[in-house]
Design a protein that fits this description.
Blueprint lengths: L3 E8 L18 E7 L21 E4 L2 E4 L1
Antiparallel strand pairs: 1-2, 2-4, 3-4
Protein name: Bacterial repeat domain-containing protein
Organism: marine sediment metagenome
Keywords: Membrane, Transmembrane, Transmembrane helix
Length: about 70
C-alpha cells in the first residue's frame, strides 16, 4: 500500500513476521495492520497445489489501513 508499511498481524495469526506461512485447515480471521511510512514493495509469487478462494477487504479505520 503506497505510503504505508506492514506493522503486524492480528487475529488467528499474530506477530511481526512478514511473510507468514500457514496451512488452512479451518476458517480463520487475520488482519494485516499497516502504518504510515515507506517500505519497498517486493511481490512474492508462489504456485498453489490446490484451488483456494480468498477475499481481501481493505478499509481505513481511524487513520490505519487494515487488510483482512
Amino acid at each position: 500500500i503506497t505510503g504505508h508499511k506492514f506493522s503486524h498481524w492480528e487475529g488467528d495469526i499474530s506477530g511481526e513476521a512478514n511473510p507468514v506461512n500457514f496451512q488452512m485447515t479451518a476458517n480463520i480471521s487475520v488482519v494485516a495492520v499497516f502504518v504510515e511510512g515507506a517500505a519497498p514493495v517486493q511481490p512474492i509469487g508462489s504456485i498453489l497445489e490446490t484451488a483456494i478462494i480468498a477475499t481481501v477487504i481493505i478499509a481505513v479505520v481511524g487513520g490505519v489501513i487494515r487488510r483482512a
